[in-house]
Amino acid sequence: MAAAKPARKTKSADVAEQITPPRKAPPLAGKPLETYEKLVRAAGEILADVGFERLTTNAICARVNMTPPAFYRYFNDKYEVLEVLARRLLKRQNDAYAVWLFQGGSWAEGSQRTEALAEWFRIAAEIVATEPGAIWTMRALKALPNLTHVRLESQRMNTDRIFQFYSKMLPDMDPQLLWQRLRIRSEFGWMVDELAMEEDRLPHDVLFREAARMMDRALLDDDL
């Protein structure tokens, strides 16, 4: 007797499988917001303790003595919690960079400019070091395709912002080339953060100084 053929999926079933559940808006106040923040904080703590591979919805719930249904009232999966952590980390760094920029970091002269940039690297690394699970959040932003857009949006937005400053400082530089160099510079900053967290054979003062020297020269050198 011939084996029965599997039922053919309808077009509507195919479409249904491709639909991503809509993201749930964060609560605005009260007990729901308190619960939401507990879940986000727990996810960051678990990342710091055991890394991304062992971050699960059950582990997040267990950390705050909640049941999975409580988690799913606010998030569809662990990736949405990770996106919240990522956006908060990036916003904290971008806001700190804006303060550094307005305080004169972008228009210092000569060696002072290099020192100012080294100071920014120190500030950025300190943010990563003090944000629970931040290094794992950064790794996830690079490794997980469904989070790539978060990182790109943040880096491009920050590049657009600092471009407005540097285009006034360097009016003779081709605008497209300037934006491209600033975009590379922004990406290079991530590498400095990672080295500061992971490479114990590279003292932070050396890392920040040398990274600042190379980046400052790369931005201004007409021969590059």
Helix content: over 70%
Beta-strand portion reads under 5%
Roughly how many Å apart are the termini? 73 Å
Instruction: State the major sheet.
Output: none
Radius of gyration: 22 Å
In round numbers, the mean pLDDT is 84
Q: In sequence order, what are the helices and strands, one letter per element?
A: HHHHHHHHHH
- Count of runs of 4 or more consecutive helical residues: 10
Q: Unreliable stretches, pLDDT < 50, 5 or more residues?
A: 1-6, 10-18
Structural class: mainly alpha
Q: Indicate how many domains the architecture comprises.
A: 2
- Cα shape: elongated
Tell me how many strands there are: 0
Description:
By secondary structure, the chain is mainly alpha-helical. The chain has two domains: about 25-75, Arc Repressor Mutant, subunit A, CATH 1.10.10; about 85-220. The chain is built from ten helices and no strands. Residues about 1-5 and about 10-20 have low confidence and may be disordered.
